[in-house]
From TrEMBL:
GO molecular function per UniProt: DNA binding; sigma factor activity
Alphabetical GO biological process terms: DNA-templated transcription initiation
Protein name (record): RNA polymerase sigma factor
Family the UniProt entry places it in: Belongs to the sigma-70 factor family. ECF subfamily.
Amino acid sequence: MASSEQPSSPAPEAARQGSSGDHSAIGAVEAVWRIESARIVGALTRYTGDFALAEDVAQTALSEALVSWPRDGVPREPAGWLMSVARRRAIDDFRRRANRDEKYAMLAHDAAREQATGDKDPLWDPDRVEDDRLALIMIACHPVLSKQARVALTLRVVAGLGSEQLARAFLVPVPTIQARITRAKKTLGAARVPFELPTGDERTQRISSVLNVLYLIFTEGSTASVGSDWMRADLAAEAIRLTRSLVRLAPDEAEAYGLLALMELTAARFPARTGSDGEPVLLEDQDRARWDRSAIRRGRAALGRATAARSGLGPYGLQAAIAEQHAIARSVDDTDWERIVLLYEALGRIAASPVVELNRAVAVSMAHGPQAALPMVDELAVSDVLAGSYLLPSVRGELLSRLGRTDEARSEWRLAAGLCGNERERDVLLRKANQS
């Protein structure tokens, strides 16, 4: 069993670096892990009462699947197979711990009875999935953890992101993110955080952190930070599903509706965001007839619920309001860019960040021309607050191109391509540089 002292290998990396056998079986392992990892870890946490142990034995089961499935074939119930193996490894761990003899006896008795009677695994109860996953998120967002640790841990155990993806997302080395996750699990263990949904004020306090984590999961799905796919629609869909669950859990939380609105309105464009070969299609080139009108209606309805709270839109609500302006416009030229500039100004006052300022500059360029926006971008460049991010040179290249400063634009796009971790987006940047 992997020790919590050692960073365990996340599924995507393990799959790519591991067996050279049956690729379809490896693909099945990846797919099942991507979809079911959170449910498995959640059920194991409930079973063992130990979050770190649950994550370790789940990773062990994953490793065994990468060896077994290509050799023996994909089992009829892949998630159940992973769950059973993980549970056996948990029992093995309990057996080695003398101070857990009593619990081991109870678990072993249950396992023997299930084997004798042929009963289905009581841990794999579809009716408890929802609570398990939300409880897992709440644990990962516990106040004993730093904000960075909460996000990393949730993305790891709930969304199934690998260490490499997390490292790119946070612009830190892989060992740093692995150490961060290990420390987070040890902290949760030391604090004896229970596996349960918090109630009352404690639940309210954790909502903001949970919203932030769900937003980051959606962002990774909307524009993947690494890999050959521009989007990870499955990840974005999972973030939306979790946010809908959270809205049901906290129906009076306006910002939860704001985040749901932002996700729905953004996801509405997904059908038109990629071409036939998976290449990115930029906003100005998208066929708006392909936008998901049902998602737009759901997003606007959620934004209406956030607005109806009459407490003022928060960061997510304001971003949703910006997304709404795109959703209702018939074209880029038809878009109310003046209103988007105002919304970004409001967003900057309550949630200032270099990325918000960069987006405001883009909106200003669309409303008033590139010359008005270039000083804003240059100021960000001088401040070095977005060093290492491809976003700033990408936008700067666009503005310089519109101003006819072709050589400088080409240089910026090449710089952006060198910083971009997503292959699809990198191709777009290089194509702009080569065709300018």
